[in-house]
Amino acid sequence: PANEEHWKTDYNKLAALLSGKDCSQIAGDATNPCLKATHVCNLSKKCVRLRTDYASICTKGAGSEDTCDRRKCHRGLRNFFEKVPEDFTKSILFCPCQDELCGERRRKTIVPDCSFQYNTKPNCLWLLDSCLEDHICKSRLADFQQNCQPADMSPDGCSQHNRAACLQAYMGMIGTPMTPNYVSNSSVEVSLWCTCESSGNQKEKCDQILGLFESNKCL
């Protein structure tokens, strides 16, 4: 019941905010676009339900002796990004931050302790192999490679001249074995949780895979 009351209060505050009557009602929204995006998500039954679903799955066992169920966590994330309208998901994942508090919220959107990080960084080619063995990941990676091909001469940095399609393809990678995320609370740089050290004669191939995410002008 307490939680229900909390949602009602949030809803009333947000209704006022969206109608433009009282923007001061939600403290912090003006300086934290990620917080505002979350509040807007709370207005949609589907958005808040699927967000709560994956958050509860992905946080279960995180930080304790139990390990989280990464497979279930990934499935929950895919559900959220597939079924919730893009207006909500893009606002939550790509909210523009001016400070680290906002940046931390953005980085933690996908519950990285479960969905992104391992205790040690695996080789990126191992991540690639895991992806290619998974039919969802394999097709989404092909989509990402096609839509996020960088181009120096292009105004938006994308060879397809369609950054929106690239961002959509990036969201498609979340919840796969090659889930990307922000590298820190103070940066818009993204990466995979992997390394190209000890790649031997496949170092170039490894760098190419990592470079698709790390230094991609299209993203």
Outline the structure in words.
- The chain has helices at residues 2-19, 33-41, 45-59, 70-83, 86-93, 100-107, 112-115, 124-132, 135-147, 163-173, 203-214, and strands spanning 181-182, 190-191.
- It has 219 residues and is mainly alpha-helical.
- It has a two-stranded antiparallel sheet.
- A hairpin with a 7-residue loop joins strand 1 and strand 2 (190-191).
- The longest helix is centred in the first third of the chain and has 18 residues, at 2-19.
- The protein is globular, with a radius of gyration of 18 Å.
- The model is unreliable at 1-27 (pLDDT under 50).
The radius of gyration over CA amounts to: 18 Å
Main beta sheet: 2 strands, antiparallel
Overall average pLDDT: 85
Number of helices: 11
Proportion of β residues? under 5%
Strand order of the largest sheet: 1-2
Give the termini distance in whole angstroms.
42 Å
Quaternary structure of the protein:
single chain
Order of helices and strands: HHHHHHHHHHEEH
Instruction: Give the helix level as a range of percent.
Output: 55-70%
Low-confidence stretches: 1-27
- By DSSP, the count of extended strands is 2
Taken from the alpha-carbon principal axes, the silhouette is globular
Alpha-beta classification? mainly alpha
Fold blueprint:
Blueprint: H1 2-19, H2 33-41, H3 45-59, H4 70-83, H5 86-93, H6 100-107, H7 112-115, H8 124-132, H9 135-147, H10 163-173, E1 181-182, E2 190-191, H11 203-214
Antiparallel strand pairs: 1-2
Helix pairs in contact: 2-5, 3-4, 9-10
